[in-house]
Request: fold
Amino acid sequence: MSTELRGRRIALIGGAGFIGHNLALELARQGAKVDVIDSLQVNNLLTFSAKMPDLVNRELYLRIIHQRLDLLHEAGIPLHVQDARDYHALGKLLNQQIKPQVIVHLAAVAHAGHSNKDPYSTFDHSLRTLENALDCARDSIEQFIFLSSSMVYGNFKADEVDEEHPLEPIGIYGALKVAGEKLVIAYHQVFDLPYTIIRPSALYGPRCVSRRVGQIFIESALSGSTLRVDGDGSERLDFTYVDDLVDGICLAIRHPAARNQIFNMTYGGSRSIQELVEIVRQHFPRVEVQRVPRDALMPFRGTLSTRKVVAQLGYAPTHPLEAGFAKYVEWYRALVGEPSATAEVQA
Ligand SMILES: NC(=O)c1ccc[n+]([C@@H]2O[C@H](COP(=O)([O-])OP(=O)(O)OC[C@H]3O[C@@H](n4cnc5c(N)ncnc54)[C@H](O)[C@@H]3O)[C@@H](O)[C@H]2O)c1
Reply:
C-alpha cells in the first residue's frame, strides 16, 4: 500500500541545489505541497555572484541557477531563503509556517574535494544543518529523509556493494555522511522519529553546477579542450541520471516500507571513466584525452547494489549511461547554443 503524494506537505532543506530543485519540481508535478528552504550560499547563487578569480564559468553557472529559480517560481513552489545553521529561525519556519509532514535534508557541502579543503564550513553546512533540522522535526514529522552518499563505504571491498558493506570512509565528506546517518538513527532511537537514509552516487543531469566528471567532459568538449582523465580511466562509478534518483525519492516518500530503512539508490551498474570517454566521443568525435594523476583521497568505488530498493519500493531506474548522457548533452547544447553563452564555456 502506498501513500499519495497529492497534498502532502514536504519541505526540502537545501532544495535549491541540483538534486533538490529537480526533486521539488517532480513532487509538485505529482501534486505535493512543496516548500524549498535554501540559503543560496553554498554552490549556489551567492557563491557564483561573488567575483572570485578562480570561479570557472561563472556567468554560465549563474544562468543555470537562475533557470532553477525560474522553474521553481513557475511551478508555484515557495523558496524560503534561510540559512539552516540558524536553529531558531529554522525551527520557526518549519514549525510555525510550513508545518511539513516530510522533511528531505539535502543541505551540505556536496563535494568531497571541497570538503577536504574546508572541513570547518563543511561540518557547519552539512552536520550542523542536519542536527538543527532533526531537532526541529523530532516531535511532529512523519518521515525524515537524509541524503547520504556512497562515500560512506570508502574503498569498495567488492565490485558490487550492498547496504551491509562496512562503513570505512576516507576524508571529511564521507566521515560527515557516516556521522549524519548515525545522528538520524539516534533521533529515531531517542524520539521515535521515522527516517529514510538514501545513498546515491555520481549524479549527473541538467542544471548541475558542481563540476563533476561528466559535466567537465561536456564543457571541455564544447570548448574544444582535451578531456582530463584521472588515472588510467579504469576507475568505475555508478553514474546515475538525476531523474532516476528523483523517482526513487518519490517512491521512498510514498511507501511505508521505506520507513526506518537505508537504501542504496543509483543506476545499479558501474561504468569506467574510459567508457564515459567513449560515450562523450559519440557526441563529440574529435575530443582528445589527457591523463592526469588521480586524487589519492578518492576511494575506489564501483556498483551499488540496488536489490533492496528494487524489492522493497519497486525502484526502476530507466537511464543507462548512454541514454542519460544523450539527454544531458542535448540539454547542454541547447543551453550554450544561445549566442550569448557560447563564448562562456571554459574547460
Ligand atoms: N550530486 C551527487 O552526485 C550526490 C551524490 C551523493 C550524495 N549527494 C548528496 O545529496 C545532497 C544534495 O546534493 P546536490 O548535488 O544537490 O548538492 P548542491 O550543492 O547542488 O545543493 C546543496 C544545497 O544546499 C544548500 N545549503 C548548503 N548549506 C546550507 C545552509 N547552511 N542552509 C541552507 N541551505 C544550505 C546550498 O545552497 C545548495 O543549494 C547533498 O547532501 C549531497 O551530499 C549528492
Remarks:
- The longest strand covers residues 33-38.
- Residues 9-202+241-266+304-318 form a domain with the Rossmann fold fold (CATH 3.40.50.720).
- Confidence is low (pLDDT under 50) at residues 338-342.
- The pocket of nicotinamide-adenine-dinucleotide is lined by residues 14, 16-20, 38-44, 83-85, 106-108, 110, 125, 129, 147, 149, 200-203, 210 (CB under 6 Å).
